[in-house]
């Protein structure tokens, strides 16, 4: 990290940036217009245990009051049985929303070795390369 820091300082010293008198006066005015940071004040004094208990009990009382007010005017739910639902007729075989495509399923043929497939693939790639080369020669 020391080498990096030294190099940064050297690079910064090597930069020649002319500062006009007008810009220098604006920078100085900005720097003089600010107040220095004040040291952070000490943490507030710890609260007394009596105040902690009072605030806890106040919160608990407010919670109980909210629960009581919510449940005050609530009536008992009607427990009457639900009316019987009429039997609906559902077609035995509804029409499907999506029609499945017809698939041509055949078992894979692994009779030829993979080496032959590799030779064929290399041949196809070489043909494609030659075709692209001819097109580029023709174009340019």
Q: Could you give the topology of this structure?
A:
Layout: H1 2-14, H2 21-32, H3 49-72, H4 114-139
Residue stretches low in confidence (pLDDT < 50, at least 5 long) are none
List how many beta strands DSSP finds: 0
Elements, N to C (H/E): HHHH
Tell me the β content: under 5%
Instruction: Kindly provide the radius of gyration, computed on alpha-carbon positions and rounded to a whole number of angstroms.
Output: 43 Å
- How does the overall form come out from the CA principal axes? flat
Helix content: 40-55%
The overall average pLDDT, rounded, is 78
Main beta sheet: strand number and arrangement?
none
Question: In terms of structural class, how would the helical and strand content be classed?
Answer: mainly alpha
| Distance, first to last CA | 52 Å
Number of helices: 4
Short structural description:
The protein is mostly helical. 54% of the residues lie in helices and 0% in strands.
Report on the architecture of this protein.
By secondary structure, the chain is mainly alpha-helical. It has a domain at 114-140. 54% of the residues lie in helices and 0% in strands. It contains four helices and no strands. The chain has helices at residues 2-14, 21-32, 49-72, 114-139. It is flat, with a radius of gyration of 43 Å. The mean pLDDT is 78.
């Amino acid at each position: 990290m020391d080498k990096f820091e030294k190099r940064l300082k050297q690079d910064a010293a090597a930069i020649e940036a002319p500062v006009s008198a007008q810009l220098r006066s604006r920078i100085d005015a900005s720097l003089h217009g600010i107040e220095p940071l004040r040291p952070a004040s000490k943490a507030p004094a710890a609260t007394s245990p009596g105040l902690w208990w009072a605030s806890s009990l106040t919160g608990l009382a407010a919670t109980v009051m909210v629960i009581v007010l919510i449940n005050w005017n609530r009536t008992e739910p009607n427990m009457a049985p639900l009316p019987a639902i009429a039997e609906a007729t559902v077609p035995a075989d509804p029409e499907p929303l999506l029609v499945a495509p017809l698939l041509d399923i055949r078992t894979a043929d692994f009779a030829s070795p993979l080496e032959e497939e590799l030779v064929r693939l290399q041949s196809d790639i070489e043909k494609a390369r030659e075709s692209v080369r001819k097109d580029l020669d023709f174009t340019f």
